[in-house]
Every structure is written in structure tokens, then in C-alpha cells.
Amino acid sequence: MRSQHRSIPVIPKGGLLSARSEGAVPGDMSHLTLAPVDLPSPRDTVAVMSTAPELGAKVAEALDMRRSQKVDLLHVQPGESLDQLLAPGLTAVIAEIDPAEGGLARLKRLCAIGPNAPVVVLMRGMDDDTMLAAIEAGAEEVVDITPAGTFNGADLANAVARALARHSQDGRPARSGAGDAKLAPAPLMLVQEAPEAMVVLDRHGAVAFINPAAEELLGRAADTLMGKRFDLDIGKGGEVTIVQPGGETRVAEVDVVETERGGVPARIASFTDITVRRKLETALKTAQGGRDAALKRSGRFFSRVSHDLRTPLTHIVGFADLLQSDRITDPQRRQDYAASISDAGRAMLDMVEDLLSVVDAQGAAMPEPCDLAKLVRNTAHFLSRADGGPEVVVDAPQGALVARVDLAKLQRALYRLVAGIARDADAGSILRLSLRQAGKQARLTVRIDSLDGRPVALPASLEDSDPLVTPADARTGFAAELLREALDAHGGALQLARDGGSVVAAVMTLPLKD
Asked: N or C: which end of the chain has fewer CB within 10 A?
């Protein structure tokens, strides 16, 4: 904003002199008198930015004593918004600053985004360096002010006059009159005060301005970005990922507006931080995925449980009905049927005990560290004690492989499965338990090798799709489901290795403890 006066003299420091009268005698100083400062047209407004309201009165007195028309005064606290300085009709800004209290930073902000009016500084503790710093920050003139808040009124008046003259001669746009209600705030003011992160880019894509919210979002200070090409690919807007220098990742939505700055094409990019929203969405998706997986696992588990419990129960009921009939007269057949009922009952009892162990384990203590190598060796030891079973060979590292598991639940399920696999193995075959570390996981492979070293097909009941026709098969399949449920609960898995159409190995994986 520039005054509308037509001619403003540059007044030398130290006094205000009137023009030389015609016919004056050289050496005659009678024609030299104090004249009013030629500040702009009537009822101009001068803003005084100071923490002390009484300083405004001193400024008004200094200016009014040297001009024909008094000025209107606008007092602004340094910490207040700069909106009021954008009001139409503002002639000049007189700002009191103290370099020791961050005054230069406020001055730089004022000159960068404030009104189009000259800024004259009243500086406390001024020296050559601080005065130069104030000029570099954008001040037109600098006047010394004492710690008590006093200053030379003539110096201030002259400084204002020189600043206005320089402002006029620089060809800056004239300010609008006080009645111009359509005057819009300066674009940089809107960027500076906006709560959203905003960056102004010139036509070459270099940063022309950046507000504090954008500095915080990008994790970089303005002085490291100003004048440099903006290295974030914002295109025409959309969602961008921001990696701060410290490694923190932020996500933002970007709106890009094409505009002009000083008659030159520019772009204003507005960033809305949606990091928290994206984290919440990810957490919800993860929770939903975990819930769906748990429901699927539970559905599969209980479906298998109901199926496997019916198999021995069907044997018990069927053979009991045959024994009740009078048609079975052969003592050997009656004995065989009774034995089948007994086997099915024991199988069902084992499955019920396993099922109850799952219920008990769900209310047991938290998972604890477990040496999987030791667990596998203990399982092999118990299997070796069974009469008529295959030879058990363990291939495991000597060192510990530690996982955090529910030991009772995992140990029972593993033993039941391995025992079920070994139950029908031919004499002389070899049951191999191979434990290996694969990255951050432990991998246990269970297989049976025949006398000639070829893999033997494992019970078909290990597969969900195969029918279960005997109590023994039901017991093995049920044990596999218990182990699968135990592994799933600890981030592991049970997989089946095939050779042709037959299952030849059960492979268990489990994350190792960090």
C-alpha cells in the first residue's frame, strides 16, 4: 500500500526545511523554518507495533508536531495476527523490536507478509550489525530507541518521510483508498496464517514461500527449502507420502491451485495431514483381517471336531446295536465287535481329553519361551518307548531354538500328531523329525521312510478333504487340527508336503523369539 501524495521530499536527517523563497539573499537564513512533514493525504493511518501502548502516543506526538494534519494511530501487539495491518489506508508501520528477544524474526515475518507499506524500526540495543540485519529483513529505516522507550522525534519523522519517498520512487503499487471495501488480504498472509500446511512454488517449481505448518509436516526448516526446487512430487494433487529427515513417515492429501504471484505463474500447494487417519484405517483393516482369520480358523476347527467325534461314536453305536441283536451268535465276532467298541471309546476319550486341553490352555498362563529342539527330543523319547513302533530319528541343532508359545498346548498337540503318524507305520520303518532354522522361523518336518529309504504316505486324515473312516484316522486328523490351531495362535502354520498324490510329510513352522 503506497500513499497517494504526489511529491514527497527526501528530508535530510537532523531537521525539516521549507523550500527556498524567491529573492532570498545568499547567506540569509531567515527564510529557513521548520515545515510540516509531507506525509500522505489527510487522515492517514500509521500502525505502531509495540508491547507498550504508550509508545504509540509518543510516535503520534513526534509526527503531529511536524505536519499539518494529524495521523490516525493503530496499535498492534507483536504477538497478534497481522490481519489488522492489511486494512485499507495504512500509510506506514513503525515497529519496536529488540534483537535479543526475537524481534528480528518478527520483523522478517512482518516485512514478508505484511502490508504494502514502508516499515520503520525503532530498535533497542542497536549497533551496526543489528541495524544491517534489520535492513536485510526488509526495514526501510532504523531509529535508535533507549531502554526507557525514548527516541528523537525529528529522527523518526525524517525516517518516515525518507521511507515513504523511497517507497514511492520504487514504483510500488499505490494503496487503495479507505473506502475500498473489496481489497483482499495479501496471498502470503493467507498462506502464513492458514492452519493447513501450505507451500508456494514459482513457475520453475522452486519454493517461494512456506508456512510454519508446512515446516512441521515436512520436518524441514524454511531456510533449507526457500529458493530450491521442491523435491516432493505433488503433481496436480492427491495423496503423498512424506519421509522426514529423521525417518518419520507422514501421509498427506494435497490440493494444488494454479495462481499468479507478482504477475508470474505460481502454484499454491495445500497439505492436509492424514497420517493418523491412515494409521487408524490400517489398524482397523488388520483387526478385521485378524477377526476374519480367527472366525475362519474357529469354524474350520469346530467343523473338524464335530466330524472327528462322530467317527468313533458311530463305531460305538453301530457295533453296540449289532451286539444287542440276536443274529450275532459267533463268539469270535462278538469279541471283535466288543474290541472295536473299546478302541473307538478310547479314541473318543483321547479326543475329548485333547479338546478339554484346548479349553484349559485358553485360560492358562501367557506364552513362555520354549526350546523347540528340546521339545522335539522329548517327543521322540516318548515315542521310542512305545512297543512295536518305528525307529525314531531326530535331526535337530545342538543349540537352542527358542519360541514363545503355550508349552502345554503345543506339546500335547505335537505328541498326539506324531504318535498318530507313527501308529500305523510298518515295522523297520524310520520316523524322522527334522528341525531347522529358516530365517526367523523354526521348521519341523515329520516323515516316515520305508526300509528302502522311500517316503511312506501319511494318513489321509491329515487332509481336511479326505473322509475319516476309522477311529484311528479320526484321532490323527483331530490331532492335526489341534496342532494347526496351536500353531496358528502363535503365528505358525501346518503344511503338508506331497509326492504325487500322497502326503509324505507334515511341515510345521513357528516364529522364533527375537
From this structure: C
